[in-house]
Amino acid sequence: MSTKGKWEKRWHPLREEWIVYSAHRNNRPWQGAAKSTPASAPDFDSACYLCPGNKRVHGSVNPNYNDVFIFENDHPVVGMQAPEVTPAGSLYKREQATGVAKVVCYDPRHNISLSQMKLPEVVKVFVAFQQEMIAFRKNPAIHSVLIFENKGEVVGVSNPHPHCQIYAVDFPLKLVSQQVRVADIYKLTTGKNIFESIVAHEQQDKIRIIAENDFAIAFIPYFARYAYEIMIFPKAHHQSLISLSDEELAGFTAVFHQTVRKLDMNFEMDFPYVMSMMQAPVDGSSYPEFRIHCWLQPPYRQPGLIKYLAGPEIGAGNFMADTMPEEKAAELQKINVADYRWER
To answer: What is the b/e burial string over 122-145, where b = at least 16 CB atoms within 10 angstroms of the residue's CB?
Structure first.
């Protein structure tokens, strides 16, 4: 069996680590397709604390909302009313967990996801993200904001109602800080923007591009860790959602929408993922070399077969990937999104 093009390591320029690819080992049989029927749950669940009109755990009642509904988390990981703590020493530090934690319900229907929603409805969600970012920029207590979705039971979502969360915190987010530092160094050493260089390489290679329009591009990066890991960039230089025009935001959303629909269609299931909106801090400082990107990290590498983090990943901090980015991109490139059949 030839291992050429299936067994190598690649440098991840944003994480500064080697990714080892051993796709020649990926010949095990599928362990059964753990597919979830997109409409298996009811439109409304009286026991769901996110459905319209239902009571939440602390007694607040949700309005009978029609599209996007946002509220402060009843069980916040950070809060403006977090208890004060006594400072510790220089090695073992502790501080007050200050910030804002919000829940964003995408739709009143309990049994739908962003991929199944119509594009104009998803645009409303992204517009809501942008409005939240504008508000956080005006809050002097907030340094950084993470918009993220844990989609699917396999990634540990606590409620299947379509929603994501926003953590606005008073400290730098580690991976964003790393990318800012890497981008600054790359600029000093090459005179170029590292994100623009990555996008340019993908546009030149073409073989890993999943979706593209005049305003945005999605691809499985050359250095992907997860089999179907996808990065989505606006084509113009933006540090966060705040500065995108209406047209750019709609185009960015459209590429995201095409991408998540292709993921659904590839395995014929409501495909799970962790979505992170990677944005520059809103602390008033300048981050000219950073570029916003949406980062999708789906756990499956085959239907019913999850990429579990084990010895190398947890113990050493280096990913061992069982698939090649080019092979997974080729799967998704063959899919015609016009054939998507779960829109509701």
So the answer is: bbbbbbbbbebbeebbeeeebbbb
Contacts for 253 with CB less than 8 Å, ≥ 6 apart: 119, 122, 123, 125, 126
- Which two tokens mark 137? 């920029």
Question: Domains of the chain by range and CATH?
Answer: 14-26+35-339 (3.30.428.10)
Q: pLDDT of 132-175, one tens digit each?
A: 999 999 999 999 999 999 999 899 888 999 999 999 999 999 99
Give the single-character DSSP code of 313: I
Quick one: how far is CA 164 from the chain centroid? 10
Nearest to 262 by CA among 312, 337, 209: 337
In DSSP notation, 216-231 reads EEEE--TT-SSTT-EE
Nearest to 234 by CA among 221, 250, 215, 219: 215
Residue 104 near residue 70, CB atoms below 8 Å: yes
Quick one: which of 127, 120, 133, 96 has its CA closest to 239? 133
* 234-258 pLDDT tens trace: 999 999 999 999 999 999 999 999 9
Residue with tokens 């026991």: 47
Instruction: Please state which of the ranges 1-15, 94-108, 230-244 shows the lowest mean pLDDT.
Output: 1-15
Q: Residue holding tokens 């298996």?
A: 40
Which residues, at least 6 apart from 113, have a Cβ–Cβ distance to it below 8 Å?
Answer: 38, 151, 162, 260, 270
